[in-house]
Amino acid sequence: MRQRLWTIAGEVCRVGSLGPWGLLSVLFIGSLGSGQLSAQSISETIEDVSPKVVKIFGAGGRKNLYDYGSGFLVSPQGHIVTVWSHILDGDAVTVVLHDGRRFTGQILGAEPPLDLAIVKIDGEDLPHFDLTRDVGEAGPGATVLAFSNVFKVATGDEPVSVIHGVVAARTKLSASRGVFEAPYSGPIYVVDSVTNNSGAAGGVLTTRDGRLLGMLGKELRNNVTHTWLNYVVPISELQTPIEEMITGKFKPRPSEDDEAKVTVRRFSPRDFGLVMVPDVVSRTPAYVDRVVPGSAAEAAGLKTDDLVVFVGERLVPSCRVLLEEFGRLEPGDPLTLVVRRGDRLESVQLTTPRNSPRNDVTTDSP
Amino acid sequence: MPSSASSLLLLLLSLAAPPAEVEGLTDRAFQQAAALAAPAVVRIDTVGGREQLEPGMVSSGATTGLLVSPDGYLVSSAFHFVSQPSSILVTLFDGRRLAARQIATDRQRMITLLKVEAERLPTPIAAPKESFRVGQWAIALGRTFEAESPSVSVGIVSALNRVWGKAIQTDAKVSPVNYGGPLIDIEGRVLGVLAPLSPHESGDTAGVEWYDSGIGFAVPLVDILSVVDQLKTGDDLLPGLLGVTFKGKDLIQGEPLIDRVRFGSPAEQAGLKPGDRLTALDGSPITRMAQLRHILGAKYAGESLRCEVLRDKQTLEVDLILAGELPPFTPAFLGILPSRNPGDSGAAVRFVWPDSPAAIAGLKSKDVIEQVQGIDVATPAELADQLGRLRVDAVVKLRVRRGDKSAELTASLVLPPTALPTDIPAPAPFGVQDRPEGTKTGRLMETLAGHDREYWLYIPENYRPDQPHALVVFLHPSGNPSEQGALAAWRAECERRSIILLAPRVEGRGGWSPNDQEFINDAIKHVREEYTVAGDRIAVLGMGNAAPVAAVLAFRQPDLIRGLALIDSPPLGRVPENSPERRLQIYSRARGASIEAAKWTQAVSELRKAGYPAVLSRSDEEAGAYPTPESNAELVRWVDSLDRL
Fold first, then answer.
1. A352 torsion bin: left (phi>0), alpha (psi -120 to 50), beta (else)
2. What pLDDT is attached to residue A164?
3. Residues 6+ positions from B340 with CB-CB distance below 8 Å
């Protein structure tokens, strides 16, 4: 599965390792000729997809809370996938199709950790995405179309708005790092157009030829750069819970948030014989102040003035993050540290002690 | 015309009703171009660094870089290195992680050169300038997401030679996600390196507010490559400065008529004089300020410039070497507060600063200064202009009228004061005009149209429209509106000294961000439309975590803001050097027992070094709540003396 998602990325890496520039022109021309071309134009796609996307009206309407949203049909009988939001706070919502047909929708189920909800209207032979057939995947640079009732531009018997862009990236939303405040964390598409605005969440992203890529996310701001992120949750992440909700087999997953809350900080750098510099400013770099003689850290070769830059795969921009990462360790976990010593990066292997950690770890807390 | 037949063809076809095949080919071409350039695109992470001047907008996450030599030189946008990170890490396309060193920055084009220790690295193909065409496809690449391939945004080249000849403009989405990455053409060649830039201002973070707006800039890679060898020496490349100011401030209309020549500048050394008209630079004729900016925009410090000037109907030609830095401009201090009463004839003195050059020379309040160095001055503004042309150590002859006698006094000017007098009497009220019907006074709560955001105002109950008022824009710390405290500390003084207090509000835990600048400016504009505000006495007061945004407002808008006051936060960050066009004065109040005294002293001394009058005031009062009226009194005196000379 993962392998398939990354065919384009795979190509890039292979090309790079072959010896960068010489062979590329060959590949460039070659691929243009042999590329698989889709048979449907963008105009035809819009005609085909628009009727499958619906306008949803519900709770809200007060200060800063809009009362409209988007959703998409996934069955001829009227199962609608949408985003979990305050619009669904009432018992029922109003659903308006592209041709102006108006329905009352009941909330069939919701999975807040995925920002996912299913609304059911009573209909027959409705235009819809067949989740076993009409789905696709796309890599960076691929043209995509976003369909949603952004800003409630469409009213009554009008199709929703279409915004065109390209896939900017396939990446992960890592909510745990405080950069994004979203219930969802997992794989996402990032789009290079402003697809996520008021009312757009719950709409769809499709390929140029109309295959469903995913559901448009909510408005989301990066807390570090203060920039907005236009993201889409891939349909592959939603497919199983959607099917389970429709068939009534759905069981909510335990929330990862609750799990995180009960986790106590188990380990600290001192458990390895590392004394870090005092954490005085908001971004104190994680320099090693002292290595305790005879400790595991000393045996691994760590030295005073080493700057810890990675704990495992995570970049350590400050002492605070270092303490967080050590706090997450479980007894016996392997621990890889990358430290900067002068102009070199050194990788160091440690093992988290198996015995119970010290009890006074709080002395290391910021 | 067409640079590349294939890309133009694709563009034309896709603008007409495109068949599916062409759409597919276009997509494929984008992806191939990205794949071609990708190996030279690296991710850059930074660790540590100074606290930020502008919260939020200074990138503290990852950024992108572009390799430019097989032996490990790479370039990125200078934006990311504003905070002077203590360590820089580069992740190559193949996942290798390397420590990087910052070598030097081109401060004209805002591009930083870095170095990693590696060999046989992939380098990009630079698109030649002759191939640049407005309308051609342009693809912006970044490597900041956790992903195996670079992020992609597709647009076109919107314009060339933007930002005074320095940059390509594109409508591809450019933001902290891809600053430092390449803008490539459909053939995968690099057009330029993405960077925040603005034609209206310079500085580390200028242009960031345009992120993802469809207005993005890239500095041509060929231009960067031509200076890489110079940057390798480790010295920053600086914009070339001439050291003159012009009478016309407007770029489009303004004429290049020299108003002032800075002391110790290349222009002074070359003998340029006020009143000279620049007619050509390096052989290109000049009639407007914008043309001058275009020519200087491409010049570095150390480069030569040939100026043709017209003086007394004679054309002179001088050659000079542009400077990277000018000796900072520090306004000279005489020690008077001029009268604000337009009924007073001439430049009358309201108050003489104790122990100042004016006091030592024997000036007294109610004196009228008639001449400075033999030049007539008829108003306080003319007096200010003449004093502004003098060096800080100048000995100045003043012709002064006292009653019906005139006398010549001599004053030895000094550096601006670092403290305030213990008492500055409130100005005597003047004017008899009644308040027009319907003018609202007192504490007002309003919502700014067009922004849907709230602010509160205090308008003195004795407000009269013929009395120019000082305006204090109070930015509260986020989560602590401090309204009662601020009102208690200011209300009586607003009445006594004709001060209007304006307090825009911020909601949400994020607090102030540079995005709020427009709202704050519009609120100031609205108050100035409704009430009489003295343009030379507008101050912004930032408390706690509002200090950075207050500093941005003040330093970026020298025409609008004349005073910057900070409570509970030292003035941190790089500041632009003072110049005769900036009249900014700074007041900084450090409270609480745990203040980092050294940090404040250092910050204030840096401001003074840059030429700004700065007052540092310390108190043992607890930080947090708005200062008491007693504690606030010094700040009030500072506001009431912003027009001092």
1. beta
2. 93
3. B350, B380, B427, B430, B468, B534, B643
User: pTM for this structure?
Assistant: 0.74
Distance between CA B625 and CA B618 in Å, rounded? Answer: 16
Residues with Cβ within 8 Å of residue B50, at least 6 apart in sequence: B83, B84, B572, B573
Contact indicator for A304, A288 with CB cutoff of 8 Å: yes
Which residue of chain B has the CA closest to A192?
Answer: B153
Among residues B29, B32, B24, B34, the alpha carbon closest in space to that of B151 is found at B34
Q: Does A14 touch chain B (CB under 8 A)?
A: no
Distance of CA B358 to the CA centre of its chain: 33
Residue whose pair of structure tokens reads 């236009």 in the numeric block: A230
How many CB pairs (< 8 A) connect A and B?
204
Q: Which residue of B has its CA nearest to A283?
A: B48
ipTM over 0.90: no
Q: Please, which residues have CB within 8 angstroms of residue B437's CB and are 6 or more apart in sequence?
A: none
Rg over alpha carbons for chain A, rounded to the nearest Å, is 25
Give the C-alpha distances (Å, rounded to integers) separating B282 from A187, B299, B303, B323, B353. 56, 11, 11, 16, 48
Question: Whose CA is closest to B241, among B322, B329, B327?
Answer: B322
Range B241-244 contact pairs with CB under 8 angstroms and sequence separation of 24 or more? B241/B265, B241/B266, B241/B301, B241/B322, B241/B323, B241/B324, B241/B325, B241/B326, B242/B266, B242/B267, B242/B296, B242/B305, B242/B307, B242/B320, B242/B322, B243/B267, B243/B268, B243/B323, B243/B326, B244/B272
Chain A residues in contact with B93 by the CB 8 A cut-off are 12-13, 16
Which residues 143-182 of chain A have a CB within 8 Å of chain B?
143, 165-172, 174, 179
d(CA B423, CA B441) in angstroms, rounded, equals 27
pLDDT over 50 (residue A61): yes
C-alpha A92/C-alpha B63 separation (Å) is 45
Other Cβ atoms less than 10 A from the Cβ of A326: the count is: 24
Q: Quote the strand ranges of A186-250, DSSP E.
A: 186-191, 204-207, 212-216, 220-221, 228-229, 231-234
In this structure, are residues B332 and B390 in contact, taking their beta carbons and an 8 Å threshold?
A: yes
Which residue would you say has higher pLDDT here, B47 or B258? B258
The owner of tokens 């949408």 is A82
For residue A153, what are the CA distances in angstroms to A68, A86, A200, B535?
Answer: 10, 20, 11, 43
Q: What percentage of chain A's residues is helix, strand, coil (to nearest 5)?
A: 25, 30, 45
Do residues A149 and A199 lie in contact, with contact meaning Cβ atoms separated by under 8 Å?
A: yes
pLDDT in tens, B376-393: 999 888 998 888 888 888
Binning pLDDT at 50, 70 and 90, where does residue B555 land? confident
Nearest CA of chain B to the CA of A251: how many Å?
31
Q: What is the mean pLDDT of chain B?
A: 87
